[in-house]
């Protein structure tokens, strides 16, 4: 799972709404048993707006102390339909990120490579496509620590090149095994389809041993945090374009201050954003294209365990929008 803004949040495409479009019969919507689906998803964000709680630190822009993250994430996924109700999916993330401060824009740190690979099995409660106007699925899986958690980069300083461990927010991996629980469901109501989905990553490991370079002993190493994402909304067809539908919904992503299992020590930037997410989905035969631009209306950098213990409140940077583009093909 991968970085989001200055907090760490998993890939959003581990949950999707394209299954809900099956109620429109826009081509071959359902994946038949013993068939494959290959997906490529792209995510872009540029985070630079700093928040403490829900209050934006606007002085950071005038003081030129904003820290910028520019992240490109490409997810390669393969799904095999074992039976009409059971499927198995594997996702390999490719991660490309840069981080710099406005005060020293020439000191760019970068991290690239494969992120943490995930494997998830899913089951539909009802047998598709007979009940395709409503259904709900549950998924359970494993996140593997395949991404580098201690990536380093060379930075040019006034005294010469220096090698540094890059910030936690642009590390390709978190160094821990994780357990994935997700759901997705939909129901057709006349011409509309309402949908909801969510995913939670349980990370039992406390810290990963990677040094942060921060001054406080309580934040000396990186925390391995739980993560979550959810979305809900409605899909409607365009009257004159049978293969095209549009969606409007709410999307949320976040990192909790405390994990469900295990300790929550070390450095993390907990928080969440809640977005309005307009989008388009185009389906033709075996092919599906999707496009959405979540725009936040609430951003909240919550307090970490070290923050609470030491009676302070750290900050985190959030993006003004996220660009999501997806393509999938059934074979």
Question: What can you see in these coordinates?
Answer:
The protein has a single domain (3-330), classed as Porin. Helices cover 3% and strands 57% of the residues. It contains two helices and 21 strands. The strands form four sheets. A twelve-stranded antiparallel barrel has the order 3-5-6-8-9-12-13-16-17-18-19-21. Strands 1-2 form a two-stranded antiparallel sheet. A two-stranded antiparallel ribbon has the order 10-11. The mean pLDDT is 91.
Oligomeric assembly: single chain
> SS-based structural class?
mainly beta
Helix/strand order, N-terminal first: EEEEHEEEEEEEEEEEEEEEEHE
Main beta-sheet annotation: 12 strands, antiparallel, barrel
Helix content: under 10%
The number of helical segments is: 2
Query: Radius of gyration, Cα only, in angstroms?
Result: 20 Å
The level 1 CATH classification is Mainly Beta
Q: Indicate the CATH architecture.
A: Beta Barrel
First-last Cα distance: 26 Å
């Amino acid at each position: 799972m991968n970085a989001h803004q200055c907090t760490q949040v998993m890939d959003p495409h581990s949950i999707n709404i394209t299954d809900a479009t099956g109620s429109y019969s826009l081509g071959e919507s359902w994946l038949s048993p013993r068939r494959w689906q290959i997906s490529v998803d792209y995510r872009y964000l540029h985070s630079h707006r700093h928040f403490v709680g829900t209050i934006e630190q606007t002085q950071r822009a005038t003081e030129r102390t904003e820290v910028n993250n520019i992240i490109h994430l490409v997810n390669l996924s393969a799904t095999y339909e074992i039976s009409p109700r059971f499927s198995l999916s594997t996702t390999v993330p490719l991660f490309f990120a840069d981080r710099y401060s406005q005060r020293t824009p020439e000191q760019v740190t970068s991290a690239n490579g494969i992120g943490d690979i995930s494997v998830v099995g899913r089951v539909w409660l009802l047998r598709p496509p007979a009940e395709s106007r409503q259904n709900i699925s549950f998924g359970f899986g494993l996140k593997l620590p395949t991404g580098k958690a201690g990536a380093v980069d060379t930075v040019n300083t006034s005294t010469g090149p220096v090698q540094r461990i890059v910030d936690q927010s642009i590390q390709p991996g978190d160094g821990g095994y994780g357990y994935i629980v997700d759901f997705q469901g939909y129901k057709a109501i006349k011409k509309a389809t309402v949908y909801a989905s969510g995913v939670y990553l349980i990370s039992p490991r406390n810290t990963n041993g990677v040094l942060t370079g921060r001054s406080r002993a309580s934040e000396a190493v990186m925390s391995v945090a739980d993560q979550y994402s959810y979305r809900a909304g409605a899909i409607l067809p365009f009257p004159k374009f049978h293969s095209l539908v549009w969606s409007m919904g709410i999307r949320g992503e976040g990192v909790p201050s405390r994990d469900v299992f295990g300790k929550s020590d070390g450095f993390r930037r907990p928080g969440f954003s809640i977005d309005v997410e307009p989008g388009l989905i185009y389906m033709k035969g075996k092919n599906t294209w999707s496009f959405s631009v979540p725009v936040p209306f609430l951003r909240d950098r919550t307090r970490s365990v070290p923050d609470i213990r030491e009676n302070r409140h750290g900050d985190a940077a959030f993006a003004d929008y996220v660009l999501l583009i997806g393509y999938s093909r059934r074979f």
